Amino acid sequence: MLNEAIQRALIGASGQGLPGKEGRHWPTAVSLAAFLTMTMRGLASDSHKSLEHKLYKTATRLSKEGEDHGDDNPKLLALGFVHPSVEDELIALSDLEERDRRIEADVRLLEAEFSSSQDVQAIIEGEKDGMSAQETRDTFDMTPTQYDSARKRLRRGADKLFPGRRKP
């Protein structure tokens, strides 16, 4: 704390501030000991008012309130002070990988079903690449009517292949 107070006094004497640090001006009528003491008090007060300190105090208070919850304290979780366990993250990752495998299998079924339709294949490729309707039409040289017709065929074919999956 003393080093920080001296550093702030030097910054104040030079008249040039540093990023994130303000200098403290030493009035000539005040003794060095009194000036450094008051500077340290001010730094301590600033530290207690900082956002980081307030968040730490809040987290400590909430963890004491939710001791019976362990790591699953809903208040701490809502504030972002608790993260999922490694096991939960692995389960979520596994679920995502399984979902991706199912999507890839569905896309292969759609591609096989529409292997003879270049327009539908173009829409599928556009969807896989995250293209908008306009980008797909431009890339695959389709008119709006061709695109809309192919989109309708794709939707109807998907409804037959995967009944009940589409939300109305």
How would you describe this protein?
This protein has eight helices and no strands. The model has no long low-confidence stretch (mean pLDDT 79). The longest helix has 28 residues, at 86-113. The protein has three domains: 1-49, no CATH class; 50-83; 87-161. With 168 residues, it is mostly helical. α1 (2-14) crosses α2. The radius of gyration is 32 Å and the shape is elongated.
Oligomer: single chain
Helical/strand content category: mainly alpha
What's the total number of strands?
0
| Helix amount | 55-70%
Number of discrete helical segments: 8
The figure for the number of domains is 3
- What would the principal axes of the Cα set say about the shape? elongated
Q: What Rg is obtained from the alpha carbons, in whole angstroms?
A: 32 Å
Span of the ends, CA to CA: 65 Å
Mean pLDDT: 79
Short recap of the structure:
69% of the residues lie in helices and 0% in strands. The relative contact order is 0.06.
SSE layout and pairing:
Blueprint: H1 2-14, H2 32-49, H3 51-65, H4 74-79, H5 86-113, H6 118-128, H7 133-139, H8 144-161
List keywords for this structure.
mainly alpha, 3 domains, 0% strand, 8 helices, 168 residues, elongated
